[in-house]
Amino acid sequence: MSAAGARVPVGAEEATAIVRLGAAAAAGDAVRLAAALDGASSVEADDIEELLLQTYLFAGFPRTINAFFTWQAWASRDGRVRGRRRIEQAEGEDLRGRGETLCRWVYGDHYEPLQIRLNRLHPELAEWTLVEGYGKVLGRPGRPGPERRELAAVGALIALDAGRQLASHLRGALHVGVEREVLERAAVAVAGEWGAEATVSALLAELGAAATGGGE
Hints:
The protein has helices at about 10-25, 30-40, 45-55, 55-80, 90-105, 110-120, 125-140, 145-160, 165-175, 180-195, 195-210. It is mostly helical. α1 (about 10-25) crosses α8, α2 packs across α4 and α8 (about 145-160) packs antiparallel against α9 (about 165-175). The radius of gyration is 16 Å and the shape is globular.
């Protein structure tokens, strides 16, 4: 699958800034989030709005709302113009279809096993993953593209110490076009800030071994 329109590759500096933003927002750490915003000059304001919004998928409304309070105060203090705050009207089957398409792209060959596992846990988890997770949140049209959304997800899951999901989104970042070296540099750098470098390094090594063996 390919994204519509021109896609701008994510460089190492921007990738690290995005992973750091995702981590601080999901952790609910206002001090770290403000510092992450200080270091996010390479990230467009429109992208920051969207990446903070998707925090709700990983860490819930309270931390997402608090992240926006921090971003609002930071932007006001810094004199930075905030990005657009888009309200989307898509619903129902449109969201599900969009979510399934994106989820298949992110998970690749792991998509069907994912659906089987989630259905065994609870059928609603499988459905919400497609409609809510990938359709409503991660599949929102416009910028940022899936590369940047996956990087923010990686950051959130590093901070939340959610190893199983982190492995999936590290793989997903590669599937949607983040260069391996860029992903590794960003993930390891931020993991070191959250005491998770060993975990992330091990997961990246597993991905590398899988790639060498013929697939990710």
